[in-house]
Write a structure and sequence with these properties.
- By secondary structure, the protein is an alpha+beta fold.
- It has a single domain, classed as Alpha-D-Glucose-1,6-Bisphosphate, Chain A, domain 4 (2-Layer Sandwich), CATH 3.30.530.
- Helices cover 28% and strands 30% of the residues.
- The N and C termini lie far apart (33 Å).
- 24% of the residues are buried.
Length: 171
């Protein structure tokens, strides 16, 4: 049996759409909020808040808020090449890299979360939690881009059920 590398995981999905469309749904606040977030705010290096239709760029900072979760995520965009790669800090010390590759009429998306600390709390919260979360959100992106449907719950409310993030598969 192989040993688990708790500092990294990857997720892959194939989506029947264009590379440009997938990239825009990752990098434009308005589109990111359709399938993933309640709110996304991007700020330039000079402190200027970007518009909801503006794509993120390398060195922008972000603040993300989800439906059904009171917390927020803040980080830095480390790379956004305008076509097929996005890298951003995420969940404390870790980073996420999204790589898009066009193959025929599909986009092969690979998400890699890496540089995660390997203490027991991080293994559970970040490795297991984020791995499960990204699995759902990538499926939600595919469902939306291919079929126009969204799978996530926006009305549950995090204060209604303290365990909602850990028990419900669609929050």
């Amino acid at each position: 049996m192989e040993t688990i590398d708790w500092s990294i995981f990857n997720k892959k999905i194939k989506i029947n759409t264009s590379l440009e469309k997938v990239y825009k749904h990752w990098t434009t606040p308005e589109l990111l909020c359709i399938w993933f977030l309640k709110e996304a705010v991007y700020t330039t290096q000079n402190g200027i808040v970007k518009g909801q239709h503006e794509q993120l760029k390398t060195n922008d900072s972000y603040t993300w808020k989800w439906h059904n979760y009171d917390g927020e995520e803040k980080g830095i965009v480390k790379e956004a090449n305008g076509r097929d790669t996005i890298v951003f800090s995420f969940a404390g010390e870790s980073n996420v890299k999204v790589i898009l590759e066009e193959k025929g009429n599909q986009v092969h998306l690979e998400l890699i979360q890496f540089d995660m600390p390997t203490d027991d709390a991080t293994k559970f919260k970040i490795h297991c939690g984020c791995s499960n979360g990204w699995t759902f959100w990538l499926a939600n992106l595919k469902a939306y881009l291919e079929h126009g449907i969204l799978l996530h719950e926006t009305e549950l409310g995090s204060t209604d059920d303290k365990m909602s993030c850990g028990e419900y598969v669609n929050v």
